[in-house]
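User: Could you check the structure of this?
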Amino acid sequence: MDIAVPHDVLSEAPDEESKVRKLGYIARGAAVFRAENLIIYTYGNDVDWEEVERMRLLLEYASTPPHLRKKLFKLDRRLRLAGLLPPLKIPSHTPPKEPSVGDVIEGVVERWDGYYSLVYIGGRRYAKIPKPYPIGSRLLVKIEAETDRPDIYRAVVVKKPPDYWGYKVEVKPFKQLADGYDTVIYTGREGRSVCEGLPRPVGRTLVVFGGPRAGVDEIAKIEGVELKGLFLNFIPRQGTETVRTEEAIFAVLALLNYASVCSVGKPTKIEK
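Assistant: Sure, the predicted structure tokens are below.
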């Protein structure tokens, strides 16, 4: 499942600290419910691209394993408040202190040793891979054996992580959001009440959230496009005037997770 939030989702945050905390809640929501991609979508003619890039950077930083952050992110003023981001504590963020045979760890290629790549896997330890991958590449490696050095392990590259490994961040225009998805669910107060039927996502699914300036139905009108998918109100009888995007993420994804994991609700696949 992927989720999408608008480029102006931080527009009503009063200060920089509040913006970072808000992004932290969004990152936590994506991780709790195992989102594979977190999309920042753009609309209208007044996109603040500098703000979009800052959002992308902070969300990528939050999803990156802590032991790799200093290797992958240079000193950047935009990250000065990154310490306010809450830890995600997903499997990729807690590598073993002492790697064992069979462990899968994410690392970054730091240097070559002849034909081999030395992949930094945290704790001043390295995995030795029999192929010269580009310096700086992020690799998922599986420990195969120890070597005569306590800080180096023989390993192989694996393509698929053994568990949820975090989300990737994309930036896309609103008009292209639905491309490539089997199920698209738009959320908003003006949508059909979920009480009339809880959908059970089928296939590749995208859940789209509105923002503080406009709901998804208003954004669709601004962009001159028709919503291709379900438009649902997941919080009928809400007690507040508005529901913040980060609040909606938890409310909506909790219900969809229940429907998917517990196999309840009506299987839904959108023909576009």
